[in-house]
Design brief:
Length: 155
């Protein structure tokens, strides 16, 4: 996720002070660490690639980001583990070629009521349809797009 797109994501959400955030498919961890810099209380960064995880670990250390927790695991495995919790915001930036609506729907189950899941995807594709999630809005940024979802709850 580019710096411009990350900025747009957080600007659109407004105040995230004290939020619990999950950065799935964390890559460099930039999105999750930016959430901390914008007031999130805690961020869980999930990245399966061990070499990339070491970069995240170094970034956490250099920023002294005490509210960050790194999980070196596949997102699909993590979602089903006891380590997965509930979050005010789940950021999902999977590799575009492997955008899996089923896995994203399972991630959506971790979103708290009135929380958000934001999926980064190719701007050339329609937003993914996710089970038990309602698409609220989608915005393109050049070749990328952000789609914002909330959980469907019954009253």
């Amino acid at each position: 996720m580019s710096e411009k797109v990350r900025g747009a994501l957080f600007d659109s959400l407004g105040d995230i002070t004290d939020w619990q955030v999950a950065d799935a498919y964390a890559g460099s961890g930039a999105a999750g660490l930016e959430a901390l810099s914008r007031g999130a209380e805690h961020v869980t960064l999930v990245e399966k690639d061990k070499r990339v995880s070491e970069v995240i670990r170094a970034n956490i250390g250099s920023l002294a980001a005490t509210g960050a927790r790194l999980i070196n695991q596949n997102v699909s495995t993590w979602v089903d583990s006891p380590e997965a919790a509930s979050y005010d915001l789940v950021i999902a930036d999977p590799p575009y070629a492997r955008l899996d609506p089923g896995a994203l729907s399972r991630l959506g189950a971790l979103v708290r009521p009135r929380g958000w899941m934001v999926v980064s995807h190719s701007g050339r594709m329609e937003p993914p349809v996710l089970e038990s999630m309602q698409l609220i809005r989608s915005k393109r940024y050049g070749d990328s797009a952000l789609s914002y979802y909330q959980r469907i709850t019954s009253n």
